[in-house]
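idk why but the lab printer keeps eating my pages so im just putting this in chat instead. protein + alpha-D-glucopyranose:
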Amino acid sequence: MTQELTSPSPAPQAPGTGRGPGWWRDAVIYQVYVRSFADSDGDGIGDLRGARERLPYLKDLGVDAVWLTPFYASPQADGGYDVADYRAVDPLFGTLQDADDLIRTAHDLGLRVIVDIVPNHTSDRHPWFQDPELSRQRYLFRPGKGESGELPPNDWESVFGGPAWTRTDRGDWYLHLFAPEQPDLNWDNPEVHTEFEAIMRFWLDLGVDGFRVDVAHGMIKAPGLPDIGHGAQAQLIGAQVLPFFDQDGVHAIHRAWRRLLDGYGDAHGRQVIGVAEAWAPTAERLALYVRPDELHQAFNFQFLNAPWQSDALRSVIDASLAATASVGAPTTWVLSNHDVVRHTTRLGGSLARARAAILLMLALPGSAYLYQGEELGLPEVTDLPDEVRQDPAFFRGGRATGAAGPGTDTESAPDGVAAAGGQDGFRDGCRVPLPWSGELPPYGFGPGGSWLPQPADWGGLTVAAQTGDAASTLELYRAALDLRRRLPGLGDGPMTWAPAPDGVLAFTRPGLLCTVNTLGHDVELPAPGTPLLSSAPVTVDDATGRLPGDSCTWWAI
Ligand code: GLC
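predcted complex ->
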């Protein structure tokens, strides 16, 4: 299945090479969910050419890097997170040449490129799983329980719902923490390690600047695959160490990958990184993934899950900064991704809060991840008909994502958080294709339709409609990212809390003071300086600043 490049491409030199202060420490990284970003060929599915054509938009937006979700050969049982060939591009998304072109164009524009790697499981169509002998060694097959082996080997549940085991025609069972089409690999087998290191080298040779490691907390299972022993497993994911998630053994794998990434980077004068999608129960356990000899970054889902309350936000921020500082890693921040309800909707359906939240996030020290469409203030689409649904969790009655931590499902969500406002907690509503221009679907997404229907009222939310409108969310993102670049030290410098009234957060960063009013009404305070940028009109009268409800302001000090 592996495609040949028509013209093999040497790895492009990205700006800022070698060791030294890492580019990732304060980078703003934009997540491109490829199938929903831009479609070049009219089949209604976004593709690599479409993404490449839109790279100047991302450059102009002001981000530093792009993370592309999986575009590899896949039956698409889980949006491409079921990979059948890690070295081939799925024809839905283009060719290897298109990937090469995209990476080159990004580098020419000064953008770095991160790609997904999916090591916990493959597709059931992967040649290893298809081969009866190989599959027994490289996946997790076990005999069943019960008189004739008719019961699953243990009580583990699939994150997407139902048992985590499927019985084969031969009578034994294989483990799949996600869909049955995603069998878990056996990481006790050295050949699995060798293969993933080779896959990484393959993409590094093509010029990528790093990997987002899918389910980075999942590869190692507790010896003997013990029962968990009680129900409601979905509530435990991310809340405690489980026999299949956040086992200490995963760290040896990350240490080996760090050696590979550093060795490759040193040999080629590049800085290449790994970012963990790891759901750990505490900020301290998450920090273990970014110790100096492990991955460079880990997504901070505790921030994503925080309710819109000043005390809760402050304690998540403090815990995140303290935990990463203890290992010398940068903190990351994220509000939305392809697995969770878009934050405009999650934060109570309030665009005002979403705008405030992003100014808060971009004022914090560390690296920030943006999810495509949040810069347009897109809400979650909450009225998708069942017949267009594609999320495997929807069909299996499980959770929105495997990875999702506590608080991302309806039952356990704190007030105003997580699934609140979403259709039903599943993931198609945040994956609706982007509106670029025009008054009607597909809003310039491509020359055909769009694989999920776009709302009829998105004409005012398109990139074209918002460009040049100073009051738009798109221009707010552009202004914030521009200031972030121009204020030295804003990304990776110090942060100090300042006194503030109840319900308000205030902190200083190099060159600015940031205030966040999490209350639903105006608050007055002594103006700390001159407003530089605000998510809502702020007024200053006789040295008194009036912060609108649910707003964030950056003040020049
Ligand atoms: C990660 C991905 C999610 C996928 C799951 C299984 O959580 O973000 O989309 O379904 O892993 O690969």
